[in-house]
């Protein structure tokens, strides 16, 4: 049986584009939550920086995550990301340890 995959991703918005980024994140999150294999998809705002968004995602399998990366919603977000961000997305892909 395949292990679930956890994604922790951090995005730092350009202050003047924060509201636009939030709107794009909401669209992406709604689409992702409806995808097969999405177990959890949360986005939080860092307590010490309203421009920093932290994604916590859990996917049933690596195949489900890979399928997510190929969806229209993800591709639209990914291709436009740098107009909203101060630096590229920091992504950690992890498997359960304990």
Automatic annotation (TrEMBL):
Keywords: Monooxygenase, Oxidoreductase
Domain ABM: 5-93
InterPro entries: ABM_dom, AI-2_Isomerase_LsrG, Dimeric_a/b-barrel
Biological classification of the source: Bacteria, Pseudomonadati, Pseudomonadota, Betaproteobacteria, Burkholderiales
Organism name: Paraburkholderia unamae
Entry protein name: Quinol monooxygenase YgiN
Gene3D superfamilies: 3.30.70.100
GO molecular function, one term: monooxygenase activity
PROSITE patterns the record matches: ABM (PS51725)
A Pfam match: ABM
């Amino acid at each position: 049986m395949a292990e679930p995959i956890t994604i922790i991703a951090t995005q730092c918005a350009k202050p003047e584009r924060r509201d636009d980024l939030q709107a794009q994140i909401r669209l992406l999150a709604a689409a992702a939550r409806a995808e097969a294999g999405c177990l959890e998809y949360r986005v939080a705002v860092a307590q010490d920086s309203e421009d920093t968004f932290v994604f916590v995602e859990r996917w049933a399998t690596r195949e489900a995550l890979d399928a997510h990366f190929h969806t229209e919603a993800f591709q639209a977000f990914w291709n436009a990301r740098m107009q909203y961000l101060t630096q590229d997305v920091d992504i950690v892909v992890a498997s359960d340890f304990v």
